[in-house]
Design a protein that fits this description.
The chain is built from 19 helices and 28 strands. The chain is of the alpha+beta class. Strand 13, helix 12 and strand 14 form a beta-alpha-beta unit. The longest helix is centred in the middle third of the chain and has 28 residues, at about 320-345. One of its GO terms (molecular function) is metalloaminopeptidase activity.
């Protein structure tokens, strides 16, 4: 198969640099009169995927996970990660330099209270922390008798001599056939919401929200078509869009200037000063607005209203064009997945496949569609014990051969009409009774979510337990959420909707989420079954409340070799047979030859 184009298997982590770089950072901190510094794994917009120039945490420590935070003091240093990365962090970081800490068990604030000394100064970059995040750090410093100090220049940048350049990818217009709503209409909705909130303006700091509002896409970060920039939408008057001019062609600039004043990002400060001078009440997104921006308005006399960004819910509820685009993207992606799984079924028993060769093959089948713009995230392809690491990323160093046992592939694609994300777990050879039991319990949880019917106002937290009950019955569980939101040719992880214990946002028609319960036996095998689902209204005769349910968007066979029919109810067997019949109906016309023959067998009905 052809080599992957959109993802790399290079081992970027190198613990060997940790000691020298921590020492250089401490020297720079001393030069700036600081006793410590906080290094989050993020950028100025709190993005999950960041440009190479923002990978400060990885450069300093070697850790390459999608979330983490390090604190370096004069005589102590720690790196904080969540449950996804407790194994990975110890493999990638010099633990003699950076002590790995669990974000929940020993949060950064508690660690600071223990390790900071009275009178010390802890530095932070106000571009990389939210308003609420800074308040938490301030409380921790106050408890230790220390002070929190905003720096003008990030000390990591001062010692990072070969730091990559700031990205300047071209901005493209997102056509109406995919966007489904004109930017002018979206701006009217935003202004109406500002009126309800009593705010004079909204500062849009989330590039996803900027892209959605102005119907543009970009390429400043990997795997998500984001143009890094900002916008300010006043309740009255023209909005301002802050994008680097180097990213804009004459055609794109002209289109954007029809609806907004287009300015350089450095001019955002002046706009905030003007709003402050007018004593304006201005809305900031509590999830993505940097402390520097909120402070700029405060200093100028304005009143910051820090809360949920109104755009987030608007963007989450997809319109008719976005929904139809997602359906089309999933049909296309389902055919690519079928071609891959048919190929895998032929090749895996022969031996010789590796995690990397499987990832390359799948990307190749997606590229064969002729419409692949990117993968939506680096594929998680785990063989054997690697499948038990939920957010495993294969590298040339970790690459395992695919041998008898379990193989898990979690992947997705960016098509201009939709974003996909799907996980399948397949058996290589004869699975054990334990594997089949665990797989079937995960499947039961998946079916429970897919078939759930719930009243308007229900949140993801209320549904999350549906997916866990079959595992709980056996004394089992999984440590990640059951599902996350999905964007429309935007981020594969979109909020505020989610199926998880902390998913408090009510689900609304048009929201797309993942349905992905799992099970992980450390050092042995892991299982996850993931489809994307769409919230829809559900008509129930005699219902006294407005009811919702889900439409399944993903159509890829579920490995019957791992199913234990005796554990399924009659209704669950009927669901599985119906799902496979629908998969066969949708995908069969899109594939041919060996894939078609494989599909017939893979989607055959089962009984007891």
């Amino acid at each position: 198969m052809a080599r992957a184009v959109f993802q790399s298997f290079e081992e970027r982590a190198d613990p060997a640099h940790g000691a020298a770089r921590a020492a250089a950072l401490r020297a720079e901190l001393a030069r700036q009169g600081l006793d410590g510094f906080v290094i989050p794994r993020t950028d100025e917009h709190q993005n999950e995927y960041v440009a190479p120039s923002s990978e400060r945490l990885a450069w300093l420590t070697g850790f390459t996970g999608s979330w983490g935070l390090a604190i370096v003091l004069r005589d102590a240093a720690a790196i904080f990660v969540d449950g996804r990365y407790t194994v990975q962090v110890r493999e990638q970081v010099d633990t003699a330099v950076f002590s790995p800490e669990h974000l929940i068990d020993n949060p950064p604030e508690a660690w600071l209270e223990k390790h900071l000394q009275a009178g010390q100064k802890l530095g932070y970059d106000p571009n990389l922390h939210t308003h609420d995040g800074v308040k938490r750090l301030e409380r921790a410093c106050a408890a230790a008798g220390a002070s929190l100090v905003a720096v003008d220049r990030n000390p990591v940048d001062a010692i990072w001599s070969d730091r990559p350049a700031t990205p300047m990818a071209a901005v493209a217009l997102h056509p109406m056939q995919y966007a489904g709503e004109a930017s002018a209409s979206k701006l009217d909705r935003i202004r109406a919401r500002l009126g309800e909130l009593g705010d004079a303006a909204l500062v849009i700091t989330d590039p996803h929200a900027v892209a959605w509002t102005f119907n543009i896409r970009g390429g400043d970060v990997s795997h998500t078509p984001l143009p890094l920039g900002y916008a300010v939408v006043p309740r009255e008057g023209r909005p301002s869009l802050f994008l680097a001019g180097a990213k804009l062609s004459n055609e794109v600039r002209a289109a954007l200037e029809d609806m907004a004043d287009v300015r350089e990002p450095a001019e955002l400060g002046k706009t905030l000063e003007g709003l402050g001078a007018a004593k304006a009440k201005v809305r900031f997104d509590q999830a993505t607005a940097a402390r520097r921006l909120v402070a700029a308005l405060e200093r100028a006399g304005g009143s910051p209203d820090v809360g949920a960004c109104p755009v987030a819910l608007m963007k989450a509820a997809k319109n008719a064009a976005e929904i139809e685009g997602s359906r089309a993207a999933h049909r296309r992606d389902g055919a690519a997945m079928a071609n891959f799984l048919a190929w895998f079924a032929r090749e895996a028993p022969k031996g010789g496949l590796t995690e990397i060769s499987a990832v390359e093959a799948l990307e190749g089948f997606r590229r064969d569609t002729g419409q692949l713009a990117d993968v939506s995230f680096p594929s998680i392809a785990g063989a054997g014990p690697n499948s038990a690491i939920p957010h495993y990323r294969v590298t040339e160093k970790s690459n395992r051969p695919i041998e008898p046992g379990i193989f898990l592939i979690d992947s997705g694609a960016q098509y201009r009409d939709g974003t996909t994300d799907i996980t399948r777990t397949v058996a290589v050879g004869e699975p054990t009774a334990e594997m089949k039991d665990r797989f079937t319990r995960v499947l039961k949880g998946h079916i429970a979510i897919d078939t759930a019917v719930f009243p308007k106002g229900t949140s993801g937290a209320q549904l999350d337990a549906f997916a866990r009950r079959p595992l709980w019955d056996a004394g089992l569980d999984f440590d990640h959420g059951t599902g996350h939101g999905i964007g429309s040719y935007l981020s594969v992880h979109e909020g505020p909707q989610r199926l998880s214990k902390i998913g408090t946002t009510p689900l609304e028609p048009g929201m797309i989420l993942s349905n992905e319960p799992g099970y992980y036996k450390g050092g042995a095998f892991g299982i996850r079954i993931e489809n994307l689902i769409l919230v829809q209204k559900r008509e129930i005769p005699g219902a006294e409340r407005e009811m919702y349910g889900f439409e399944t968007l993903s159509f890829t066979p579920i490995d019957l070799a791992l199913v234990e029919p005796a554990l399924l109810t009659d209704a669950e067997i009927a669901w599985l047979n119906a799902y496979h019949a629908r998969t066969r109906e949708i995908i069969r016309p899109l594939v041919s030859g060996e894939t078609a023959a494989w599909l017939e067998q893979a989607t055959r009905p089962i009984g007891r």
